[in-house]
Design a protein that fits this description.
Layout (H helix, E strand, L loop, with lengths): L1 H31 L6 H17 L6 H30 L3 H23 L14 E3 L2 E3 L1 H23 L1 H11 L1 H6 L4 H27 L6 H16 L4 H18 L8 H15 L12
Helix pairs in contact: 1-5, 1-8, 1-9, 1-10, 2-3, 2-4, 2-8, 2-9, 3-8, 5-6, 6-8, 9-10, 9-11, 10-11
């Protein structure tokens, strides 16, 4: 029973990392209607920028470094969309071509990260803390901060979507971009802000992933991208709240399953959940019309 609570506790930490990443991917998909296969590499870029600030001469605090890395990736995402992805999307209406472009962008970013920072395993400069009990669960301070960041981020996103003009415009554009444009919504501005938010969450997600896994590599984001896809599809592609729920389901399932199988097969559990979702609930738990 103790091992079960330990697995559930760490599963909540992984679910927090997943929620940050999956919501960022869902936000971008909801506006553009195509999946960005370079999203995992966005996470790696953010993680390495945070590592540079955290371990370099300035020796920034890891959480300040995380925000700086997230903002940097947000700006990078906006620039890549404006000068690369958006022109292709306007020229080629078929999504297949855009997916190929994002896949190529993924390879470019992966090699860029490897060239700039190397391929060695890197670690953040954070103190080694002893875990302590929170009820039946066991956490470190850093893990609790990761969970708190995810909760605050999800609440802020909920507030933005339901209470602000920006959020309502994003929802309108996600439902029908043509109707949103004819209604006077500045769709270009909304798209830019969405890419920034998506990149911001990717950068933050990459850093907290490195914190929870105690290391980062150029390919760590790409590897985790498959788990993000599983969470997004389980919740419902394009659904922000579905991404949150899917993150909890996949995060807990992969960690609890590790009690009964070799932990190295945790990715296979995510794959199994993905297959079951596609077989029995292909539109996800929170399917959205037009985004299935």
């Amino acid at each position: 029973m103790t091992e079960l609570f330990l697995a559930i506790g760490f599963g909540l930490v992984i679910a927090s990392v997943l929620a940050l990443s999956a919501v960022g991917l869902s936000l971008q998909f909801g506006i553009t209607n195509y999946i960005n296969f370079a999203y995992g590499d966005f996470m790696a870029v953010g993680a390495y920028i945070a590592w540079t600030l955290n371990t370099g001469p300035m020796h920034w605090n890891i959480w300040v470094s995380m925000i700086a890395g997230g903002v940097s990736v947000g700006i990078l995402a906006v620039l890549l969309n404006r000068f690369l992805l958006a022109p292709f999307a306007r020229k080629f209406q078929k999504l297949f071509y855009i997916l190929i472009v994002t896949f190529g962008l993924s390879l470019v970013l992966l090699n860029l990260v490897s060239s700039v920072w190397g391929t060695e395993v890197q670690r953040y400069s954070i103190s080694n803390e002893s875990p302590f009990h929170v009820g039946p669960f066991l956490f470190t301070i850093d893990e609790l901060v990761v969970v708190a960041i995810a909760i605050v981020a999800m609440l802020l996103i909920h507030f933005m979507l339901t209470r602000t003009r920006l959020g309502k415009s994003m929802r309108a554009m996600s439902d029908n971009s043509t109707l949103a444009m004819t209604s006077g919504i500045d769709t270009g501005r909304i798209t830019t802000l969405t890419w920034f938010l998506s990149g911001l969450l990717a950068g933050i997600g990459g850093t907290v992933l490195g914190i929870t896994q105690a290391s980062i590599t150029p390919g760590s984001g790409e590897t985790f991208l498959f788990v993000i896809f599983a969470a997004v599809i389980v919740g419902g592609v394009g659904s922000i709240y579905g991404a949150m729920v899917g993150a909890v389901i996949v995060g807990l399932a992969t960690e609890v399953a590790a009690l009964f199988i070799d932990p190295s097969y945790k990715l296979d559990i995510a794959f199994a959940i993905l297959i079951l979702a596609l077989l029995f609930r292909p539109n996800g738990l929170f399917a959205r019309p037009g985004k299935a």
